[in-house]
Amino acid sequence: MTGTETVLGAPAERREGREKVTGTARYAAEYDFPGRAQAWPVPAAVARGRVTGVDPAPALDMPGVLTVLTHENAPRLGDPDDPTLALLQSPHVPHRGWFVGLVVAETLEAARAGAAAVRITYEAESHDVTLTASHPEAYVPESANGGFPAVTGHGDPDAAFDSSATRVDVEYRIPPLHNHPMEPHTSTAGWDGGRLTVHSSSQGTSAVRTELARLFELPEDRITVLAEHVGGGFGSKGTPRPDVVLAVMAARVTGRPVTVALPRRYLPAVVGHRAPTLHRLRLGADAGGRLTSLVHEVTTHTSRVKEFVEQAAVPARVMYAAPALRTLHRVARLDVPTPSWMRAPGECPGMYALESAVDELAAEAGVDPVELRIRNEPETEPDSGKPFSSRHLVECLREGARRFGWEDRDPRPRSRGAGDLLVGSGVAAATYPVLVSPCAASARALPDGGFLVRVNATDIGTGARTVCAQIAADALGVPLDRVRIEVADSDIGFAPMAGGSSGTASWGWAVHEACVRLTGRLAEHSGPLPDEGVTADADTSGTADAESPFARHAFGAHFAEVTVDTVTGEVRVARLLGVFAAGRILNARTARSQFIGGMTMGLGMALTEDSTVDPAFGDFAESDLASYHVPVHADVSAVEAHWLDEDDTHLNPMGSKGIGEIGIVGSAAAVGNAVHHATGIRFRELPLTPDRVLTALLEHGHPAGMLGT
Q1: Pairing of strands 639-643, 571-581
Q2: N or C terminus of the chain with fewer C-beta within 10 Å?
Q3: For 569-588, how does the pLDDT look when each residue is reduced to its tens digit (9 = 90+)?
Q4: Are strands 258-261 and 37-43 parallel, antiparallel or unpaired?
Q5: The one catalytic residue among 13, 137, 661, 699
Q6: Spatial distance between the Cα atoms of 232 and 234, rounded to a whole number of angstroms
C-alpha cells in the first residue's frame, strides 16, 4: 500500500511482516544479553500433597548448573493478586505440574538436565479431578468470569417449558481445551541495580509490571516490561504467568539475566486452560418454532488455588427472544490446574451448546434452522432490556444463506451421499460482546513532516501496530507512511491487554484522541516545528469505560459443509463460510485473517481438540501437539469470511467492534449441526473424532460403506 491510498478499511500490510518472515523479529527468548543464564522449572509429581524433602545435590554437581531454587531458599514474594503466582513459597502442592523448583544454569541443556536430577520427595494426599454434573461439591458462585451474575432469569421457564408445543431437553459436554500458542510462555529478565527490565511473551505489559511491582515490592517506575513480538496467546498470556515471576526471581538470585522458556508439555498445568463445561438446555417453543422458554445450566470446574468460572451460559442472555428464561452456573473446586481465558471464554462453549440445541429445536418443530433463528430475533437485549447499539444477525443469516446456497439444501438427514461419504450442511449463529477499557497514548508531530504515535498496545499476531497506525493516519489526515508507531513498552503508559476483542477499540480510542488533539495544536501553531516536535497526550479514563445505555455486541452467522466417511468415521469440513456484523472494519486484510483464524480454531474444537484429566495421576493426558491435535492446512479446504458494512455510532470514535473472537463463536456448532444433517445422528460430546463417529454409525445400524439414501 502506498502512502496516498485510503487509510481506514484498507488492506494495509502488517508493518512487522518482513521482520517476521526474515527472522529478524526478536521474541522474548531471543534477547541474548551478556552473561545470560537459562532456567528450567521442576513440576510436582503428585496430584496433591506436600513436598517433604529436597535434595539439590545431584543437580548442583552437574557442569554448568548455577543454583537450584525451591521453597526452602527462594526469595520471599509479596502477596500476589493472582494466587497461581505464589511460586516456590510453600511446600504445598495443589495439583500435579505445580512448580516446586527451578534450576538455573549456563545453558538450556544444563538447566534441563539439572531439573531432571533434583530429588524431591512428597507426602501424597487423596485427590479428586473428575467433574460430573452431580458433583457433591458443586456450588453456585457469587459471579462467573467477567463479573457476570451466576444466575439470571425472568418469567417462569419451567411452567412455560411444560406447556410448550415443542420441547428439547438435552445435555452437551465439552472437554478441557488448551491454548497452545506457537510461542510458548517465555520471559527474559535482568536487574541493573534496583531497576528491572523484562522481555515477556505477554498479551499486556501493564498488567505484568503491576504484578511484578507487587511481588518484588518495587515502585512500578523502576520496572520496564517489553513485549515487542508475541507468538500468539489466545488468552493464555492475558495475565502474568509463572515464566515471568521465575525469570525475575532467578535473575535476582544470580545477578545475571535469566531466560525462562516453559516447555510445551508443562503449559497445560500452569498457564490456564478452557475448563470442561457440562451443559443442560431446555428449550420450549410454540407450533411455529417461537421460543416460549429457554433454560441454560452449566457445570464446570475450577482449582483450589483460584476460582475461575467459565461464563458459558451468558450468551443465552443475549441471543433469542424468550418470554421465560433462566441461566445458571455451577462450579466444583477440584485438584486441577487453574482454568483461565481461552479465545472467546464463555461465548465459545456456551454458543456451541446453545446453537446445537437450537438446531435440535428446529428439527423437532419442522422449521428451517435459519428461519427459526430469524423468528426468535429479539427487539431488545433479553437479559438487560437495553436497546442494541446495532444488531444485524438476521442480515448475517440471510446473506450467509445466499452465499452458501442454503435454499438448495434438502433438509432431510442422510439425503446426500457420494460413494462411502455422507454429505451434510449446518448453520449456527455467533455473538461476542463489545468491550473497551481506558488507555493512554501520545502523538508527536516531527520537524521532518512525520508523526510518532506511542501506545502500549501488544501485537500478538493480530496486526495491532498496523491498525493503530491506520487510526492515527486517519485522525491526522495524513498518508499512512508518514506515521511511525511504537508499542508494547510499559514505559509508554498504561494500556489494557490484547484480549476480549477489546484491544483495537481501547488502544485506537486513545490514539484517535491524541491525534485529534495534536491536530488542534498544530492548527494553532505557526512557523517551523521545534526540534523536539509538538506532542499531544490522551487518557480515555472516564469515557471509554463509561456506562453505555446500549447493549453492544458483534454478531455473525456460520455455515459449514462436511463429509462423513462411513468406512473410517472421519469427518472432513469441505467448506466453512462466515458472515459477520462487527462495526466498521478497519483493515480488510488483517480482519479477514482474524475471522478465518477463529473459524479454523472452531473447526479444531469440533473435530480434533480434546483433553482429558487422568483420574489416577491428576494430570492432562494430552500435553503436547503430538497428542493434542490442532487443525493443520490439510484440515481446512475452503474458508470464506465476509462482513456487512455496519454503521454504529455508539461504540468508539472509529465505529469498530472487536473481531478476534467472534470468528470462533458458533463455528464448532455449525460443523456439529452439519454432521447431524449428514448422518442423522446427534453427537452431544466434542470432539467428533473418527472413533466416536464410527461407533455411533454402527450403533445406529449404518454398516460401514452402506449409504441407504
Answers
A1: parallel
A2: C
A3: 999 999 999 999 999 999 99
A4: parallel
A5: 661
A6: 6
